[in-house]
Fold:
Amino acid sequence: EPEVTQTPSHQVTQMGQEVILRCVPISNHLYFYWYRQILGQKVEFLVSFYNNEISEKSEIFDDQFSVERPDGSNFTLKIRSTKLEDSAMYFCASNRWASGSPDTQYFGPGTRLTVL
Amino acid sequence: RKEVEQDPGPFNVPEGATVAFNCTYSNSASQSFFWYRQDCRKEPKLLMSVYSSGNEDGRFTAQLNRASQYISLLIRDSKLSDSATYLCVVLFSGGYQKVTFGIGTKLQVIP
Structure:
């Protein structure tokens, strides 16, 4: 069964450093998402991406964040200058999304980001 | 009112028990509803979609009440392996797809 993959599984960085989290969505999916989950809190939507552009972003997704699909398979989340409060689990998800019908999002295993 | 509201629990139930979780949502224009399961420090995994007519998958039954903006999940004959956090997920599809998660309800099945 195809699955979403993410690398690295754990990233430790110093405050102020840039990090890039990588995701390989399921190959025939068209819509891509990033979520984060701070320990003990709920899963929070960050951004959705379709047709090489952001389709929706939350208030969390400020100028420090950016996303890119640099090639046909990878989908990346960049945090330019990490803060302590960016420490969280970051999940990538993808789906095909046929408008008007429910379409499940499939989640990757996550990258645990620790900012020191 | 929170967009998606769940009782965080924990619900501690003995093996074999029946347990029900509820979820309410605030956006009446929401279109699709799901229950996901999340094990500790793992990614959410789809348990089942929720339809107005109700749907069943083995020991799991999900129900949607659009008038009350209420979703439920019933687990019969609980197994130890059912111990997890159950996430209520609400989706709005307009020109974009917005997914909102509840905080999750933690279930612990006790031998």
User: Anything to note?
Assistant: The mean pLDDT of chain A is 91. The two ends of chain A are 37 Å apart (CA to CA). Chain A is about 0% helix and 50% strand.
